[in-house]
Amino acid sequence: MDRFEKLPLHDATFDFINIKWEDYIVEIKLFAFVKNNENALPYTLKFAEVSEMYFPHKNPWGESKYINNVYVKNGMYHIEIQSGDIIKTKSKDFSFEPINL
User: Fold this and answer.
1) I need a labelling partner for 63 at 20 to 30 A (CA). Which of 5, 11, 69, 85 fits?
2) Domain coordinates of the chain in residue numbers?
3) 19-71 pLDDT, tens per residue?
């Protein structure tokens, strides 16, 4: 699970979240800074075999669409938004793939 924590997601921006209910898949389209000193590129962060997902949108630190930090805790993937909200996902695996335009 520490490979999740090594993803280049600090300051990545959310575009949209897609849930494929019948397939137990959650896809997050985002723009990530994968190369130093270059523009953010479109990527999909995909969670497979999802059994739980939490999407609070309360903005305790103020509005933001940028990722602050990612980590794994209690068997769940956590995505901390710079708004203070934490998206939590329990899934068997994830992938992080570029989107070809």
Assistant:
1) 5
2) 2-98
3) 999 999 999 999 999 998 899 999 999 999 999 999 999 999 999 999 999 99
